[in-house]
UniProtKB/TrEMBL annotation:
InterPro entries: ACP-like_sf, AMP-bd_C_sf, AMP-binding_CS, AMP-dep_synth/lig_dom, ANL_N_sf, ATP-dep_AMP-bd_enzyme, Plipid/glycerol_acylTrfase, PP-bd_ACP. It comes from Methylocaldum szegediense. Coiled coil: none annotated. PANTHER family: LONG-CHAIN-FATTY-ACID--COA LIGASE, NONRIBOSOMAL PEPTIDE SYNTHASE PES1 (EUROFUNG)-RELATED. Its EC number is 2.3.1.51. Keywords: Acyltransferase, Transferase. It holds the Pfam family AMP-binding. SMART domains: PlsC. Residues 468-546 form the Carrier domain. This is 1-acyl-sn-glycerol-3-phosphate acyltransferase. GO terms for molecular function: 1-acylglycerol-3-phosphate O-acyltransferase activity. It comes from the Bacteria. Transmembrane segments: none annotated.
Length: 771
């Protein structure tokens, strides 16, 4: 499937004139489509320019001027800001042409050929594009696989973005090389990670240190602070609660707190910390199963030479070192001297060859989801704001996390507005979450007028902590905020600004809305956590949502168990088939439309009677029926008839799906997605309730389009006629017998389609089938 997808897209690129050495931008969220697009570009001999899909239009345009892409490959949710560059959606269908074969593709035959340009800076300043060749990537891949071998039976769960070199190497190059599976997690909240570990057979998880700390903090908050001896005594039980399959945690991108590392090791998980740069393809060194040291980033990979300069700077040489910076020979010559790459990181090497990294000389800050944040980019935005004379952005350690702090030369009353204005032009992972006004007329500077960042950091570290708030009731929300942000609860009052004063970065923003949903039973959009939002504002928002969206009930995972699947056909025959044959003369047509379908399918049907679920189950062919789940409206089955719910779950594999105007649809979507991922087919009634009118179909719920588009599987429209005459709406006793017709329509695909359009298409198809 991946090869066919890449081949079809490569042919589409060829039709657009993309050939050897052309640059092609790739801007999309993590998905298998991204991987296929990557290889489609390489198949044309072109050069991949991966971009952060959360980049602002200005950032994309600035990098575009440097890379000059011939074409942009995008996910359907992204709008390319440069109208002069043609675009293709990576999630649209691209069938392989019979007239075009793989032999017509253009490949670069030499390993020195350029594979990709990764921009590690320049989102607001001068672009800095790292040129990596096919040989660079292959050399690093071979070395990584020798250090951390994988087998086809392994399964990688990754939390890293694919536009990042670290994410590429660990999240698809290694998995494809070894033939193992990989799961991409779009939103790395602790709840999403926990569910992914439960529902996927992950053996390896790839994270950045801050995420690993957040997971452990959340886990310990649920169990209480467990002493080391008790954690060791209950290790197997605790480990099984996290994951029954996870063995290895690969961690890189920033220093890992040794305390956190030892906690994970004490639970029986193998934590392998590594080190690298985009300029080194990216991995330079890593700990392994047989050779590791706490606080160390391991030994250099095979083929990578590492030494220290006289001032302690780490230098690297070997086939993993980049070709240089794109169209920037001066910058290239400054960092590659006599074949040795200057990493600008300080470190030491012990007698056994283990490398230790002390810190980044350039003060690069690692974003909460693994993205690199370069202070000069943020400073450029701040310095554009009227009233800001100058700024210095640094990473500060606060409550065990690194926050992005801006020291400003400006009038005190202009500081908050200046940061808010800059944040509007920065990507989510670049958001400035903490700031202060520099107390002197100017920053400490060198002879060349550069700000002495070390002096700035030392001064900021000495600044007194925020004083506790005076009075005010400690509420459950304040306790939750204190726990998520690792802030003393008595420093939080109603006027506290959540983003700026509690240093709520993009990762913690996702974590906060997830925790609010878990603990208060309400759903809040991440984008509602604005820089101006106070604790009082958030509390009011939570209270409003409580009244609108009650918490969804428990999902019946037991009904997917093997024993339930074996019992289900028997239950259907014993409880329903005998009387159904007496009441209904069933006529089925259109099953030929299902013949070519492979994998999971979404069935969508009209709804006029309580018989519809029984009839649809009977009509759906055995190959799909044996792994079928039915979305049942929570207000009906689980609200009006809860006594019947267990029987419906056993007999028809029913599960709760929110359809009411005041219900939160996201848990239902999550469960549908999980079932489809596990190979189940799902039946949904898009009207959301029984149609009690004289019209053949009532308007479909808006969530129909969301399900159709986001699930990414074929949608089969299904029309049922006649059940309303046998068992009219809201009745439980049959009124007579008669004919029932079931028609299957052709499967529909909604890649690149808007939600409203998808809803209209499904509704239109079912209306036609009913004519």
């Amino acid at each position: 499937m991946l090869g066919e997808r890449a081949e079809g897209l490569a042919q589409a690129l060829a039709a657009k004139g993309v050939g050897p050495s052309d640059r092609v931008a790739l801007c999309a969220e993590n998905s298998p489509h991204w991987v296929a697009a990557f290889f489609a570009i390489l198949a044309r001999g072109a050069v991949v320019v991966p971009l952060n899909p959360k980049s602002s239009p200005d950032q994309i345009i600035r990098i575009g001027k440097s890379a000059e892409p011939k074409l942009a490959l995008l996910s359907s949710s992204i709008v390319w800001p440069d109208e002069t560059v043609p675009c293709l959606a990576i999630d649209s269908p691209y069938p392989v042409s019979e007239t075009a074969t793989t032999r017509e593709r253009a490949f670069l035959q030499q390993s020195g050929g350029l594979a990709e340009i990764i921009y590690t800076s320049g989102t607001t300043g001068d672009p800095k594009g790292v040129m990596l060749s096919h040989g660079n990537l292959l050399a690093d891949l071979d070395a990584v696989m020798k250090a951390v071998p994988l087998t086809p039976d392994d399964h990688i769960l990754t939390l890293l973005p694919l536009f990042h070199a670290y994410g590429q190497m660990t999240s698809f190059l290694c998995s494809l090389h070894s033939g193992c599976s990989v799961t991409y997690l779009a939103t790395p909240t602790t709840r999403a990670i926990r569910e992914a570990l439960v529902h996927t057979p992950a053996t390896h998880m790839v994270v950045v240190p801050e995420v690993l700390k957040t997971i452990m903090d959340r886990f310990e908050s649920q169990l209480g602070r467990m002493p080391g001896f008790l954690r060791h005594a209950l290790r197997d039980r605790i480990r099984a609660r996290i994951s029954k399959t996870l063995r290895t945690i690969v961690c890189g991108g920033a220093p890992l707190d040794p305390t956190i590392e030892e906690k994970w090791w004490s639970l029986g998980f193998e934590v392998l910390q590594g080190y690298g740069l985009t300029e080194t393809s990216p991995v330079i060194s890593t700990n392994t199963s047989t050779a590791r040291r706490t606080r160390s980033v391991g030994k250099p990979l095979a083929g990578a030479e590492v030494k220290l300069a006289q001032d302690g700077e780490i230098l690297v040489r070997g086939p993993i070192v980049m070709q240089g910076y794109y169209r920037d020979p001066q910058r290239t010559e400054a960092v590659i001297v006599d074949g040795w790459l200057k990493t600008e990181d300080a470190g030491r090497i012990d007698d056994d060859g283990f490398l230790y990294v002390f810190g980044r000389k350039k003060y690069m800050i690692l974003g909460p989801s693994g993205e690199n944040v370069f202070p000069e980019d943020l400073e450029a935005e701040l310095n554009r704001v009227p009233g800001v004379v100058d700024s210095a952005v640094v990473g500060l350690s606060r409550n065990g996390r690194t926050v992005i702090h801006a020291a400003l030369l400006c009038e005190p009353d202009r500081a908050a507005a200046a940061v808010a204005e800059a944040n509007r032009h920065l990507a989510p992972h670049q958001q400035i979450t903490s700031w202060s006004v520099w107390p002197e007329p100017d920053f400490p500077r060198s002879a060349t007028r550069k700000v002495k960042k070390e002096d700035v950091i030392e001064r900021l570290k000495r600044e007194p902590a925020r004083r506790p708030s005076q009075g005010g009731r400690i509420t459950p929300l304040k306790r939750l905020l204190a726990e998520v942000t690792q802030t003393p609860v008595d420093t939080i009052d109603d006027s506290t600004r959540i983003v700026s004063e509690l240093s709520l970065d993009s990762l913690l923003r996702i974590e906060l809305v997830s925790r609010i949903e878990d603990e208060f039973g309400v759903y809040i959009e991440e984008m509602q956590i604005t820089p101006e939002l106070t604790v009082a504002d958030l509390d009011a928002l939570v209270q409003r949502q409580k009244g609108r969206m009650p918490k969804l009930g428990h999902y019946p995972r037991w009904s997917n168990a093997a024993w339930a699947c074996r019992l289900r056909p028997i239950a259907q025959r014993v409880l329903f088939d005998w009387w159904l044959s007496m009441l209904c003369r069933l006529h089925i047509s259109g099953t030929e439309n299902l013949a070519s379908l492979q994998g999971p399918v979404l069935f969508m049907a009209n709804h006029r009677s309580f018989l519809d679920s029984v009839i649809a189950t009977k009509a759906i062919p055995e190959g799909f029926r044996s792994r079928l789940g039915i979305a049942a409206g929570t207000e009906v089955l689980y609200g009006k008839y809860p006594w019947f719910a267990p029987l419906a779950e056993l007999t028809f594999n029913a599960f709760p799906f929110p359809t009411g105007a005041r219900e939160n649809i996201r848990p239902g979507l999550d469960y549908v997605g999980r079932m489809l991922d596990d190979g189940w087919n799902v039946l949904i009634f898009p009207e959301g309730q029984l149609n009690r009118s004289d019209q053949p179909v009532q308007p479909f719920k808006g969530g129909t389009g969301v399900v159709a588009v986001e699930m990414g599987v074929p949608v089969v429209p299904l029309a049922i006629q006649g059940t309303e005459n046998i068992l009219p709406p809201d009745t439980h006793i049959p009124r007579g017998r008669g004919p029932v017709t079931v028609r299957f329509g052709p499967p529909l695909s909604f890649a690149g389609t808007g939600y409203a359009e998808a809803t209209a298409r499904v509704e239109s198809c079912i209306r036609r089938l009913l004519e």
